[in-house]
């Protein structure tokens, strides 16, 4: 346990940040899962709508520093590629 005043404050700050990052990551994962579910169901319109809803959530998670900017870009790219591929097949 922290013994110095500054270390105690740092511990409090990191706990708050951890919870905030966890909430952001969970929100992002749920948005991605809705896109995945729509793709698996084969619904083109639902997949496109879910993708357009997920992209800002992923971007916001990156802008908050929870995930890296390039990680967010990669996630968006791969999701978009899957949705476009599904539409091209149909």
Q: Return the CATH topology.
A: Methane Monooxygenase Hydroxylase, Chain G, domain 1
Q: Helical stretch count?
A: 3
Q: Roughly how many Å apart are the termini?
A: 59 Å
Structural class: mainly alpha
Helix percent reads over 70%
Number of domains: 1
The H-and-E topology, N to C, reads as HHH
List its traits.
90 residues; mainly alpha; Methane Monooxygenase Hydroxylase, Chain G, domain 1
Structure description:
By secondary structure, this protein is an all-alpha fold. The protein has one domain (5-89): Up-down Bundle (Methane Monooxygenase Hydroxylase, Chain G, domain 1). Helix content is 87%, strand content 0%. It has helices at residues 5-41, 44-63, 69-89. Helix 1 runs antiparallel to helix 2 (44-63). The N and C termini lie far apart (59 Å). The model has no long low-confidence stretch (mean pLDDT 96).
Q: How would you briefly describe this protein structure?
A:
The chain is mostly helical.
Describe the secondary-structure layout.
Elements: H1 5-41, H2 44-63, H3 69-89
């Amino acid at each position: 346990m922290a013994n110095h005043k500054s270390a105690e404050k740092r511990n409090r700050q990191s706990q708050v940040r951890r919870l905030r990052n966890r909430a952001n990551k969970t929100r992002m994962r749920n948005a991605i899962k809705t896109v995945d579910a729509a793709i698996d169901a084969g619904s083109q319109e639902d997949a496109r709508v879910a993708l357009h809803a997920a992209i800002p959530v992923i971007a916001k998670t990156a802008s908050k520093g929870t995930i890296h900017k390039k990680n967010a870009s990669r996630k968006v790219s791969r999701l978009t590629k899957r949705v476009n591929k599904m539409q091209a097949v149909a």
